[in-house]
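G., before I forget:
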Amino acid sequence: MPHAVSPLAPETQPDLPPIAGCRAGAIAAGLRYKGRADLTMFAFAPGTTVAGVQTTSTTAGAPVVWNDDRLPGGSARAVIINAGNANVFNGEQGMKDVAATAAAVGEAIGCAAEEVLVASTGVIGQLLPIDKLLAAVPGLAEHVHEDGWAEAAGGIITTDTFEKRATATARIGNATVTINGIAKGSGMIAPNMATMLAYVATDAALPSGVLRDLLVPITDRTFNCVTVDGDMSTSDMCLLFATGMGPAHPKVESATDPALADFAEKLEAILRDLAIQIARDGEGAQKLITIDVTGAEDDRAARVVALAIGNSPLVKTAIAGEDANWGRIVMAVGKSGEKAVRDRIAVRVGGVTIARDGGPDPDYREEQITGHMKGRDIHIEVDLGLGGGKSRVWTCDLTHGYIDINADYRS
Amino acid sequence: MPHAVSPLAPETQPDLPPIAGCRAGAIAAGLRYKGRADLTMFAFAPGTTVAGVQTTSTTAGAPVVWNDDRLPGGSARAVIINAGNANVFNGEQGMKDVAATAAAVGEAIGCAAEEVLVASTGVIGQLLPIDKLLAAVPGLAEHVHEDGWAEAAGGIITTDTFEKRATATARIGNATVTINGIAKGSGMIAPNMATMLAYVATDAALPSGVLRDLLVPITDRTFNCVTVDGDMSTSDMCLLFATGMGPAHPKVESATDPALADFAEKLEAILRDLAIQIARDGEGAQKLITIDVTGAEDDRAARVVALAIGNSPLVKTAIAGEDANWGRIVMAVGKSGEKAVRDRIAVRVGGVTIARDGGPDPDYREEQITGHMKGRDIHIEVDLGLGGGKSRVWTCDLTHGYIDINADYRS
């Protein structure tokens, strides 16, 4: 039961240029879906470095466990992703299937199984159709090509209603390098088990430690600031690869090297772009909600408050109903557990101050924001008046469509 | 727009007998609703003791702030509750209105304002119609009577679709004392700002310290184990009064006195009964969900895991769809942040083991629980296999009705 494309989908998706040293592609392996690609691979040149951020779920899937053991090594030659089956909670067989998959990929492209990362997204608690998967690997390994990014973006999605791609160039010294990224995600998990996966690659030459030092804080400000339903997936991951096959640039050994400033900025822009696209494709989403919390004791506290607002079913249903029910925003601030002082809190919606100094703004009239509430992009600002901490979080409204997708539709 | 009575409502509500030294009643003060009582009062005999548990929201309402300052005194002569307006985030005027209300009640029944507790439930950020409220107080103070409990149960509700009452007798030594309780709650907050309020009174003679030592842990196991949408109210409170006007009984000075064992058990039964009624009246609820987590490191960890399951939109929508999507239960365990070891987790639904030893139970067939999923009472059991901690939590499914009430209906 495919769902209509989200009304919040971007009008166009960028073409992703080749990244030297990176081949990609997807094929229809018949693992779960009919008539579409569901097995995706990236193959990388020898020497490619990698860093990753994965779910902190204590019931994480077998692929996440496999990758956790291999990411510290800092290099990878491939990642293979199947859509439709998460390979989660499948006992020891789940781990065996991951190992067999990695070994098959290694054999096909000529590397060790330990140099292959694995991802699965879909239903929990069903064994992978491993024979079909293994049979498809050699063909997929032959199929991958430098122009395969769009194919890969289509191969990894599940309940997503549109593909999610982003690209940029960045300057390192006098060289211009390229960064491509794709992602999937719609609910944190869903009947077909949509989860958040993201794959980003660059032709820059960067040690894995630098990649990690860039990726962790940027992920915190981008993917970790998106919530659809607050349900953390067992399969989330964001992997960042650097092939080193692009134009020669000055050697960089630290994420804080000024030569990397533009690269870091562009990388963050790509991850932010993909993160917002995920919120735009939230199950049943009719409105994108951007929540800015300022004046918190620190950035961490600001993010907790912003996520409390972004995860509140009452805030999200009010916005679905185009109701400027700001009392629910105050409620969500109060439940966050972070410090808040009533008389210092200010609430703005659509740029209009609704409440301040511990009470409603006497000049506020609901008509001032009626037009904003009817729009597709809702902006909530909360200033706590306590310090310099700030955070921006993206989410979507909670609509009948979410119930349709998750209750009326059987997995 | 009144909503149909919840299909999960109890078939009957008990008659609440008089409690010596406690008068109750409700009148239509025209504060918000038309044609129904919306101002409720309990008046107590001199010497009545009290203990209370209130919301931990940092944006709690003015009445909560007022009560927080008075509850440590341990005695009270009255509590007044208005429905339809929460008196939250109303700045200094909100506090002034509470003080004026308490003063008016004190004058009407002949006690100090400091001996009057106050509660409000309803919309956030609108000033109370304080003149109307104050004008209604003298009549209400004359109106309260020993048979007024049912009236009070009707006077405090907002979006509730049924009244919530419970009563029991208990033995203290050779004496038989009575305990009555009423509650309201439907969503944590809602357009009409349903919140959890509960008032319990007994004719036993118990010091406020004993009441508090009883109430805090019992509340943790009852009201604090109910969730409808995870949105914590700014106005929640549970107050327990003891008039000491019932049959003479041995003096009790400690909550652990064996003479109090039966009383403690009956008190917990009443609070549990009211708590489950709140879950049964959850906005849009079609199914009551009871979640038992066992084998946790301790009871606290068990409750965190149980609430993670009970607050998961994906678990709640799956149950609305009568889908035994147990992978979502595993997901919720994993996101709770509490310790879990994949290979020790067991999941049972409707008494049938679905998953154990880190994977699906090979003997499980979905047909085994199809009938259970179609019923009104859903039972989820998760054993973590780590220790002796356990917790039981009640919630309801997440349906189109919740969206209707909270999005389509303008406050």
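Confidence is low (pLDDT under 50) at residues 189-194 of chain A. The two ends of chain A are 10 Å apart (CA to CA).

More on Monday.
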